[in-house]
Amino acid sequence: MAVAWPLGLAVLVAALVALFVWGWTRGSDARVLARLPADERARLFQLTRNKAEAFCAEPRLEERCRAEVDLLAAFPECSGDCREFVAQHRPRGSR
Fold first, then answer.
1. pTM above 0.90, yes or no
2. Domain count within the chain
């Protein structure tokens, strides 16, 4: 019984660290984009938007479309019609 308490605490700490690392890596694109100069970010946003539109127009490139759409959503410039485009091309959640 004396071993169960420290082992449980170690498992809990490991799970919390894993969740933190996972969350940190999920937001890494947004952090990198936020640090770019505005003019560079605007050019990269337009390039990413064009690529996403091209990939998403081709049904057999669905995985590549999703990757571009995920990156597109990380841009602060993505609002309005961009958000609608992202919503249309992200996979729907399942129950």
1. no
2. 2
